[in-house]
Write a structure and sequence with these properties.
The complex is a heterotrimer of chains A (257), B (251) and C (252).
Chain A lengths: L5 E12 L2 E13 L4 E6 L5 H9 L6 E6 L11 E4 L3 H4 L6 H6 L8 H15 L14 H13 L5 E5 L7 H18 L2 E5 L3 H7 L2 E6 L4 E6 L16 H18 L1
Parallel strand pairs in A: 3-7, 3-8, 5-6, 6-7
Antiparallel strand pairs in A: 1-2, 1-4, 8-9
Chain B lengths: L2 H22 L10 H13 L2 H33 L1 H15 L6 H9 L3 H26 L2 H9 L4 H39 L4 H10 L3 H32 L6
Chain C lengths: L2 H25 L9 H13 L2 H33 L1 H14 L4 H12 L3 H12 L1 H12 L3 H9 L4 H38 L4 H11 L3 H29 L1 H6 L1
Classes of the chains: A alpha/beta (257), B mainly alpha (251), C mainly alpha (252).
Chain lengths: 257, 251, 252
């Protein structure tokens, strides 16, 4: 199947506010390919989160279309799971790690199958040892991994991630970035990843889309020719990486001017 | 939904219920007579002058006792609050005394003081005292030490200190204490009237029930309800006035 | 000041007061209507031994518990519904504002008309007077929820029922618990008051009977028992919550 997973056609999102309507996104033409790792970058106020929320089913376009598998939708589509930036508000503090992971699937499956799915998800993020802990006892990085595991338990086709590593320190961030690429390789999920960190976007993505302006539009799109296997040291020294990074930063700051 | 339709919708529920009761209720019922019978009963009581006298008697007790409790409670709370060593020593005793429910003091007071006019004022004041005292105590302790030190540093007079530092800091807590104390005072006042047969709405309620006069019982219940609502609104208004005059004071 | 001497200081006042009380009554004739602490202690022991006090306390506690159970069953869903559906909230807001200030004492005569002097009166009045904190805190619990929690439920594709049961209700729990504890204290107090005037049973009735029979020591003994029951029951509730619902208590 070569049809895109998501397809935005001249999508526009206008939101009501206290001082009148404000157009957040305008003229968005975007396609997200199957099993693609797409990174969205842009300054603040350019509508990255709004676009992700539109893809996630939390916010319908006011004009134009946002289609999932060719169809319009008004609520989170089947097979699409969002991972939020504020993991503290998204995790259930009264449930253990294991029970949190079970949340999305416990209604539909049970018994040994349920245990198997939970174990797989925990193994993918490396939280097996912590399965009896409560979220409050975990570090920020572990909590975010828990949220990812919870999403993965549903075996989603698409993962939408809103600056998931934004609140973490550099070392944890680097570790989770590599884990995420491995997860994508083994599960074959499509990932749309928002970040304001250009390095992260180039390192992680198959394709990087830059949003700019207010209302936000797609300012540019690059596809850095990086290998499938990446690591934090050698990939970041490759000329292709540096070139892509340079280009993006230039356009980012050029767009800001 | 705009404001007007919101008001109408919220009015609709009690009005609809009353109309339903009126339509379905049996005037001769000893248990649930329709609202119109309450109205006629109330009119009869008003004509005989009984209702007004009873309401006045109850209100007199409540207002007088609240005033006493307010003055004593504020003074005691402020004094205790200003001396942390004293309030700490007194704390568990206060906690225990507070955990005795005020209505249960009434029979004990009846034994000690008898069933005269003093009973009402004494017991109700005692009941209303605690919320005010505790609120003022807490607020006094919470006055930021810097504020108190400012008073010392500027060497302002005691009167000025009281008026400009203590009163504005404590006043909201007095009002908050009143909001709890006044409904409590009404409950205890009614109870005193029932147990000690003192004049007031409580006593009228009890005798109406003993006479199986259902319309009178509901009429009196409505009267008590109206008093409660009126008092609540008055206190809310007072609270708003105070917070408008004293913006930024935390409670 | 060390912890020990501070605590010793705290006992100073009650002991001093009790001592002064004992002396004042023994020495001064004018106080002879007031029983001494020792006489009260004796009355307390007697009624404990002949089982009356325990039976009365059990009745009051049972009535309070039953009323509280009813408050929970009606108040929590109603409060949560009020927090969820704004139309319902508008419909019922004035109605609730009119009913809530009705004093429990004033409700007793109408209840006696309908149910007579029975446990039905006691429980009806107690429920009516104690349900309000539970309704308003359940409502506040829902209104205070972060939008993210609903979005999490939506993105995980949970059914509405699952969302309500496993996400919304536990999230609102700590707020609901505040109202539940308040409601429980009220249930105890109002049960006693209802027993004083509306149902001849339990500690409230014991208190009033002793007073009417002019048995001063026994009256004080019952007063003391009421205070103790309140303290113990509230403590037991806190303990039970911590044991039975560890995850939720964690989150509170």
């Amino acid at each position: 199947m070569n049809s895109p997973v998501f397809s935005c056609e001249r999508a526009e999102v206008r939101l009501a506010s206290a001082i009148g309507d404000k157009t957040i996104l305008q003229g968005i033409d975007l396609q997200v390919g199957r099993q693609e790792f797409l990174c969205l970058v842009g300054g603040s106020g350019t509508g990255k989160t709004t676009l992700l929320r539109a893809l996630g089913g939390f916010c319908a376009p006011t004009s134009g279309a946002v289609l999932y598998e060719g169809k319009a939708f008004r609520s989170p589509p089947e097979g699409v799971v969002t991972v939020f930036q504020d993991y503290g508000n998204a995790l259930l503090p009264w449930r253990t790690v294991r029970a949190n992971v079970a949340l999305g699937i416990e209604e539909k499956i049970s018994g040994a199958e349920l245990d198997r799915r939970i174990d797989t998800a925990l193994a993918l993020v490396g939280l097996q040892k912590a399965e009896r802990e409560y979220p409050a006892k975990l570090s920020g990085g572990m909590q975010q991994r828990l949220q990812i595991a919870r999403a993965l338990a549903l075996q989603p086709k698409v993962l939408l991630m809103d600056e998931p590593f934004g609140a973490l320190d550099a070392m944890t961030k680097a570790k989770l970035q590599d884990e995420l690429r491995n997860i994508q390789a083994s599960t074959g999920a499509t990932i749309v990843f928002i970040t304001h960190d250009v390095d992260e976007a180039v390192y992680l993505g198959d394709r990087v889309v830059l949003l700019a302006g207010s209302p936000g539009t797609i300012a540019s799109e690059i596809r850095p020719p990086l290998p499938a296997r990446r690591d934090q040291i050698s990939t970041k020294e490759m000329p292709e990486y540096l070139h892509a990074r340079h280009e993006l930063l230039e356009r980012l700051h050029g767009a800001a001017r | 939904m705009n404001k007007m339709s919101r008001i109408l919708l919220s009015l609709a529920t009690p009005v609809a219920l009353l109309c339903l009761w009126q339509a379905v209720g049996d005037p001769a019922s000893p248990i649930a007579p329709p609202p119109q019978t309450w109205l006629s009963s109330a009119q009869a009581m008003l004509a005989a002058g009984e209702l007004q006298l009873a309401v006045l008697a109850t209100l007199k007790t409540v207002v007088l006792s609240t005033f006493i409790a307010g003055v004593v409670g504020t003074a005691m709370g402020a004094i205790l609050g200003a001396r942390p060593a004293v309030s700490e020593a007194v704390a568990p005793t206060l906690e225990f005394l507070r955990s005795v429910p005020p209505p249960t003091i009434v029979p004990v007071a009846m034994l000690l003081i008898g069933s005269g006019a003093v009973l009402g004022a004494t017991v109700v004041s005692l009941a209303a005292l605690w919320p005010i005292l505790l609120n003022v105590l807490q607020a006094t302790r919470a006055i930021h030490p810097t504020l108190v030190n400012t008073g010392h540093t500027l060497r302002i007079s005691t009167r000025s200190k009281v008026m400009n530092i203590y009163v504005p800091s404590i006043l909201p807590s007095v009002i908050a204490g009143l909001r709890v104390a006044v409904p409590l005072a009404i409950i205890v006042a009614l109870l005193v009237e029932m147990l000690a047969t003192r004049p007031g709405v409580g006593r009228m309620l009890l005798s109406a029930q003993r006479d199986f006069d259902a319309p009178a019982v509901f009429a009196l219940l409505s009267t008590v309800g109206l008093i409660g609502v009126g008092v609540n609104w008055a206190l809310e208004w007072l609270e708003r006035c105070v917070s408008r005059k004293l913006p930024g004071i935390g409670r | 000041m060390t912890g020990h001497s501070r605590r010793a200081r705290q006992w100073l006042l009650p002991v001093a007061l009790l001592g002064a009380w004992q002396l004042a009554v023994m020495v001064n004739d004018g106080f002879n209507v007031l029983p001494t602490p020792t006489e009260i202690g004796r009355a307390l022991t007697e009624s404990l031994i002949d089982g009356r006090l325990v039976a009365d306390a059990a009745h009051t506690f049972a009535a309070a518990l039953a009323s509280w159970a009813i408050c929970l069953l009606i108040g929590i869903p109603l409060g949560m519904a009020l927090g969820t559906f704004s139309t319902l909230r508008t419909m019922l807001s004035l109605f609730i504002e009119l009913l809530r200030p009705l004093p429990a004492v004033a409700l007793i005569p109408p209840a006696v008309l309908v149910f007579g002097f029975s446990w039905k009166t006691e429980i009806t009045v107690t429920v009516f007077a104690s349900i309000w904190p539970l309704i308003s805190s359940s409502r506040a619990g829902i209104e205070g929820l972060h939008a993210r929690i609903f979005e999490t439920a939506a993105t995980l594709h949970l059914s509405k029922w699952h969302t309500l049961r496993s996400v919304v209700t536990p999230a609102a729990f700590s707020q609901i618990l505040v109202g539940a504890r308040l409601s429980f204290s009220l249930c105890l107090v109002v049960s006693v008051v209802a027993e004083m005037v509306g149902n001849p049973a339990g500690l409230g009735w014991g208190l009033v009977s002793a007073q009417e029979a002019m048995r001063a020591s026994e009256t004080f003994a019952y007063l003391f028992a009421i205070g103790v029951l309140g303290v113990c029951a509230n403590f037991a509730l806190g303990f039970a919550v911590r044991r039975l619902l560890p995850g939720l208590a964690q989150a509170s």
